[in-house]
Write a structure and sequence with these properties.
Number of strands: 5
Order of helices and strands: HHEEEHHEE
Number of helices: 4
Structural class: alpha+beta
Shape: globular
Distance between the termini: 41 Å
Largest sheet: 5 strands, mixed
Length: 121
């Protein structure tokens, strides 16, 4: 009985796990260049909306508003999310995934923001 109580107390909620993993991922991997002109700056977890949020910066010649077709980016992000298996636990729980792309030169400038919900994947 004591083992069950101790084991139960050590169980981490899905929200706690996601928050911890987002912080660890950011600490270990960010910033990192995803492509020649896209840098991943951080990943966060927003408990109130169950949203895993990725923040990117467009760099170099891509650091301008017209460098990407927003609908094309949304389709590619949606298709990528459908196919990625490492996030399956969070997809099974119906979590949201948000992607924000900012200017490296002026981080206040958001070029586009994509929110994907369970109906998208």
């Amino acid at each position: 009985m004591l083992t069950a109580i101790v084991f139960g107390a050590c169980q981490e909620s899905m929200e706690d796990r996601c928050e911890r993993e987002a912080k660890e991922f950011t600490r270990k991997n960010c910033p990192t260049m995803m492509t020649e002109d896209i840098r991943m700056d951080s990943m966060t977890f927003e408990r109130s909306t169950h949203t895993i949020h990725y923040y990117y910066a467009l760099t170099g010649s891509s650091d301008r508003a017209d460098s990407y077709d927003k609908e094309d980016v949304k389709v590619k992000l949606r298709d990528g999310l459908k196919n990625i298996t490492t996030l399956q636990t969070y997809k099974d729980e119906g979590y949201n995934f948000e992607y924000t792309y900012r200017s490296e030169k002026d981080p206040k400038v958001v070029y586009f923001n994509v929110l994907l919900t369970k109906k998208d994947y």
